[in-house]
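To whoever picks this up:

The parser on our side crashed when reading a file containing two proteins. I've narrowed it down to the boundary between the first structure block and the second sequence. Both blocks are reproduced below exactly, byte for byte. First block:
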Amino acid sequence: MTTTAYEPGSDRLVAQPLEGEVSLRDASGVSWAAILAGAAGAASLSLILLVLGTGLGLSSVSPWAQSGIAATTFGISTILWITLTQIAASGMGGYLAGRLRVKWLGVHTDETYFRDTAHGFLAWSVATLVTAAMLTSAIGAIVGSGVQAGGAVAGGAATTAAAAGTGAAAAAAGTGAAAAAAGQASQSDSSPSYLVDSLFRKTVAAADPAAAASAPIAADATAAPAASSPQSASTSTAEVARIFANSLSAGAPLPADDVKYVAQVVAQRTGISQQDAEKRVTETYTKAQAKLAEAKAKATEAADTARKASAYGALWLFVSLLVGAFVASFAATFGGRHRDL
């Protein structure tokens, strides 16, 4: 709509647009004030909904077993909430950008529709950039958490073999074999130091003083020597741990010379025969290899799971942002239509 007024310095009447309207000659294709207003509304609503979603998500997760929602359910709920946030915030921002723009006169209907769509898209773009700037660390964590976790787990898998040996050696160097066997009762059977300590366990007959006293005294050199001191026991345990670690890190069977040497150490400290000691060494090393292979398999599986979760998260985040852009552009056409009524 227009009104008429006298042209300055002339008696001729000319048409002039009403307040809030611009003529085609003076109109600009972009109303940045309306775009910034819509972007501010979208960013604020998006921030509020994200905070609400974080609170609801944390309240549904429990550290206790058999409590809280499952990981799959939590992931799906997060995706749905992010999508809902994008739809609500983008729709609000797009509608505001279309409703608050100036009214263009003499512009074709198709051109008006295009401009409204562009206003909604620009409002969504500015809001997304603002939100990303405010939540840079959070968005980076969402996108990169899976990759970082996968890399950390994969690195743990690569160093499992070395950690197996060095951990056992450190444990053996700090404590005696008897203290490790008696004081580490709650230690997991998969621990490398536990497996090494199990080599030096004495049988009941060998550990019973009464049985040892009643046994005939051997006069030849093949009789088991006296019990070693705690210091020598700790040293021999650390040495055996290093021997195991050297072969485990290479992924190779224990060499025959090492089997024989370790069996001699075991036989000396436990009082069992050389043949039984070699059998014990072979069985213990086989258990250590099996535990190492199991740890590597679990680490690889965890890394693959983290990689897939990161990929799915990035894809769904892309979909939700794409939906937000469409909703903002579509809502702006409604706002512009209401503005032109």
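<<boundary where parser fails>>
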Amino acid sequence: MRKTIRDIAKELNLSHTTVSRVLNNRTDFISERTRQRVLKAIKNAGYQPNLAARALVTGRTNLIAFWSRYLHTPFQVRVVQALFTQLKADNYELLIRSVPEDTDSELSPPRLEFPTDGVIAFETAYPLLWRTNATNSCSPIVSLGAYYCEEVDHVGVDLFYGASLALNHLYEVGCRRIAYLLDQASNRPGDARLEAYLTFCRESGLQAEQIVAPQQTRSDARETLKHYIEARGAPTGLFCINDEMAIGAYRALLDLKLSVPDDVALVGCDGIEDTEYLDHPLSTIVQPIEEMCRIGWQFLRTRIQNPDLPPQQLVLRPQLVVRESSVRR
């Protein structure tokens, strides 16, 4: 027979109320030791709470919505996994939804098909639209990533700083013709990596070369870079908007019988695991995914419990990891 909350409480010599509060993440006056005892007993008993009933009683669903423009790359998968790990520890579930890439201010904000306790928006401008919509103005929301919304609680990543590190590194290893490989959607004012690239070129006196692919994919990067080099020759250094495009660029350079890094020094961005498994491992800007997700969930959980808190804001800095793809002999 399936155990009830009262059965678990009796086994632990605790009150039914204490077990219930742990289940509903209302643990302000419950010690961490007691909380862990209850969570362990619940897990061992295979207890499955009735989410609909709990929502009616507590006013909470223990569901968090996750919004992102992209859900198909290894980088986005790592973000989802890191968030899932954080939420699972607090008995929350993640409801994933892809939102359109177009973030025009005239668009309506996404609508939730099922009630959630809050929203984590990753690299999308929709938090501002959500906040300015009167019917959703009180919904807790946290914005994460390189494209973050300053008008709401946020944990941003400073990719202007990261891109500047990468570009200065390419300059220091002797590159004097440094191109930037990006996609069409990112080739616009306000993108931190593009702004860093244009600032670097202006301050160093180098000619800016933006190589624009249709989409942020390995195949588009490969074909676009091949056509560009065949028409204009190869740059001596190449910075890519992300690791997906950097890996595609790496393949294009090999197709053209060019040496990495001796002919073209190459740097990507994000820090996905694939970058370590090339013949010449890829230098990359490593984003602090786990820290970003941990603090982002902490901000949202705090906002859910205390809606009137002042704004919670933090911007993290990424790290440049230099590997063989950009270190010349």
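After patching the parser it read the second block fine. Residues 5-49 form a domain with the 434 Repressor (Amino-terminal Domain) fold (CATH 1.10.260.40). Residues 103-107, 132-137 have pLDDT under 50 and may be disordered.
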